[in-house]
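User: I'm putting together a teaching handout on how multi-component assemblies are represented. Below are the sequence lines for each component of a complex, exactly as they appear in our records. Could you produce the 3D structure of the whole assembly as structure tokens, so the students can see both representations side by side? Please keep the chain order the same as the input.
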Amino acid sequence: MRIEEQIVGSVHLCIGQEAIPVGACAALDLTRDAVFATYRGHGWALACGTDPVALFSELLGRETGTNGGRAGSAYLSDPDHGFYGENSIVGAGAPIAMGAALAARYDGSGRVALTVFGDGAMNQGAVHEAMNMASAFDLPVVFLVENNRYSELTPIAAMVRRDDLVSRAGPYDMRASRIDGNDVNAVRETISEAVATCRAGQGPVLIEALTQRLVGHYIGDAQVYRPHAEVEQARAKEPIIVLSATLRADGVSEHELAGIETRVRAEVAAAATAALAAPPADPTAVKEHLYG
Amino acid sequence: MTTLALAKAINEGLRKAMEDDPKVLVMGEDVGKLGGVFRVTDGLQKDFGELRVIDTPLAESGIIGTAIGLALRGYRPVCEIQFDGFVFPAADQIITQLAKMPMRSLGELKLPVVIRIPCGGGIGAVEHHSESPEAYFTHTSGLRVVACSNPADGYSMIQQAIRCDDPVIFFEPKRRYWEKAEVDTAGADWYPFDAAKIVRPGTDLTLIAYGPMVKTCLEAATAAEEDGRSVEVVDLRSLNPLDSALVMESVKRTGRCAVVHEAPVFSGYGAELAARITETCFYRLEAPVLRVGGFSTPYPPSRLEDHYLPDLDRVLDAVDRSFTF
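Assistant: Of course. Below is the structure of the complete assembly, with chains in the same order as your input.
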């Protein structure tokens, strides 16, 4: 849809990284917890429970989008499902999540805030500010790093002294772990423990989930900075293949797996069709909602 | 009526807001036990506790981010930025997050965050402790930007800012913190905080100012009277949104106008006012709209600030120049 110019503007896909939002959101209680994501956040919105039609509508600039077509691919939000939005300022969601976690101090709700960002965000000052304050105040925040090895278009290894980003937890005295981010069950288990730690008042927690993008940083990125073989190797270890293998080993039949894929493809196609039929955002309302 | 200094009046306003609404929180660097470097939050932590008056790390971006998160969860945080120049490390969160989120969520995500900034020079401090950064924020859609100039306004405007569901940048003229005036702390029939006010009526020329320069302009108007010139002074109070109706009515009536602020003249807030006034009042103007402000240089060391800052003479010079046309 982007290539056909039905969607306009930058689009950042999370293909290859799906296990992280799916596993993490399965561990959260989205009736009370809050998720703060990045521009690579469509998967996070869906995992939080956003209606796929509303998501596609937002990407297409439709009135029926999550944000009425005023946010687009990189900024959409759906607070009714605990999704407090994407962000295209790298790392900017971290202090905001920390504030949402601070709120849990007042209402005793046990609510947790999860902020997800990429490896590149670990070099942002705002992330340091958030980790420091969250640990100084024992706040219930899960800092989740999706380490896909590329800080936008440059290898993270060239931008840090140590590329085991989980080691950053030490100076903040945070509990931390580094996991295979392509294993949805491992993600769910680890985030469940992290959430329990936070609810018990022992947060924050840092999780580094290792993964790889199967596509460019944005649609149209030719990935000239990346060896072709690396993407091919990554394809063999991507989350859906990993999960399918696990399910087969657990006795799920090929027929059942094929049925799931067919149903999901049909659901996505129907959502896209419904969104395309929705009315575009009204340009005459573009100045509305500046003030409440 | 009570006689209060500006710092104390804002303190009383904060106290009243915290009493009225348990969701109001105060946060910032040294605002708790110390009560803030200018003592504007003095005694609040003692009376409302450490949960509601929060000493934060020296991390301005983190402070504003935290406030946004709190606001998303239904609280009304009031952040103190210790000195004007310290707002620049927070600019990321203010400009890219705070100002943008409400509109792009169609108002669903409300961010009732107040950012108090002691602003301007004149206290013998240094660069980054004496600046007037208002134009950076008036240029950013989605923020309300207001400036109080006296104790009565400090008391009422801070409470209105806190009650407002929009993000508010609240400028406090630090050199006026210790100046006293009558404040009505009993009444709640407040002049709207987004409206300008004619603080001295006149017929020959309009001086437009806000924050620290309002008093300077009032003094200039008194001095000009001795030369037989009747100068009107408008205290803008709200920079964005701008109370255009009051400003234009005044300038159309007097036919002459000078805008006065401490910030550098080049690309300063006065440039926007001059352009708007010229567009709206062109056929009623007897002279071009003049601007009086700081030099377009970094803020100077304190021994030179008296030279840098607009004063009575510079304002009167602008009045004189207006009458040469």
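A couple of points students might notice: Chain B has a mean pLDDT of 97. The two ends of chain B are 45 Å apart (CA to CA).
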